Amino acid sequence: MKIVEQIDAMQRVAQHAKKTDRQIGFVPTMGYLHAGHISLVNEARRRVGSTGLVVVSIYVNPTQFAPSEDLTKYPRNLVRDRRLCRNAGVDVIFLPSDAVMYPGRAEGLHSTWVLEDRLSQGMEGASRATHFRGVTTVVAKLFNCVLPDIAVFGAKDWQQAAVVKRMITDLNFPIELVVAPTHREADGLAMSSRNAYLSPAERRQATVLWRVLCEAQALVRQSVNGLPAASLKRTLAKRVAAEPDARLDYIEVFDGATLAPARRVQQGAHMALAVYLGKTRLIDNAAL
Ligand code: PAF
């Protein structure tokens, strides 16, 4: 397994793979890897085959964090990440520094952004104003470094995957986006690097996200003609409020492909929610 820190070196590795007809499968991450990330790596390997090149980037992207967010305390463990990648058969870890990724940013010179301005407006975009601008910018930059044929994103960040998919189409990246299923703990909590912040009591209450999604699935399946979204959201908000350390940020029902909000919830609609457990903000989603 190679560790590559410079962009020109990464591009050389990628170009060499292309010349030798090896497909490149790419999993962008912010590190602190868990079984959910490894399932994305496995999916990338499945897609590119044993001769393909699987690249994982580990980069905690500062531009997708607001000043009030958890950038400096975002969990990091490179030793463990390297071991997990090696064991999962990753070929290359792309590990750029801030200076490599954003030359001139520290001096206030970075001034070019990639902005998706429709799908990124609601939900995460409404709660975290500049978040998706940072995501699309860094993902476009990473695509230019890694030159992947296939990029694998997790379904847990459903809106992110939709936004990136739009960006790939709108900016003509020759990349196939694969959205791999959310990996869950035994009690249903979606795996996330941020779970590491939870106290034992918050961790117990954090299952409320999955419980809410399961209840929504059951209610919609029992309904004859679907349900009004507003009353379903009110019912579910009460479940979140019942947890002493939980605070609902948003809960939305929408079309899973277009992200258009739904007034009436039918089977197959998509639901996403964001909940604070103490200071930690968790997200989850599912098809109903
Ligand atoms: O999902 C993430 O971990 C990040 O948003 C990503 C795609 C690696 C961009 O920094």
Can you characterise this structure?
Helices cover 38% and strands 20% of the residues. With 288 residues, the protein is an alpha/beta fold. The chain folds into two domains: 2-180, Rossmann fold (3-Layer(aba) Sandwich), CATH 3.40.50.620; 193-282, Pantoate--beta-alanine Ligase, Chain: A,domain 2, CATH 3.30.1300.10. The strands form three sheets. A six-stranded parallel sheet has the order 1-4-3-2-5-6, with helices on both faces. Strands 8-10-11 form a three-stranded antiparallel sheet. It has a two-stranded antiparallel sheet with strand order 7-9. β10 and β11 (280-287) form a beta hairpin. α6 crosses α7 (158-170) and α9 runs antiparallel to α10 (229-241). It is globular. It binds pantoate (PAF). Pantoate is lined by residues 28-30, 61, 64, 135, 138-139, 157, 160.
Mean pLDDT: 97
What's the end-to-end separation, in Å? 40 Å
Overall structural class, as computed from helix and strand content, comes to alpha/beta
CATH classification class of the largest domain? Alpha Beta
Radius of gyration: 19 Å
Query: How much beta, percentage-wise?
Result: 15-25%
What is the CATH T-level topology of the largest domain?
Answer: Rossmann fold
The order of strands across the largest sheet is: 1-4-3-2-5-6
Helix fraction?
A: 25-40%
Main sheet properties = 6 strands, parallel
Secondary-structure arrangement, i.e. CATH architecture of the largest domain = 3-Layer(aba) Sandwich
Shape: globular
- Flag low-confidence runs: none
Query: In the CATH hierarchy, what is the superfamily of the largest domain?
Result: HUPs
Task: Give the beta-strand count.
Answer: 11
Number of spatially distinct domains: 2
> What is the N-to-C succession of helices and strands?
EHEHEHEHHHEHEHHEHEEEE
Count of helix runs: 10
What are the distinct ligands in this entry? pantoate
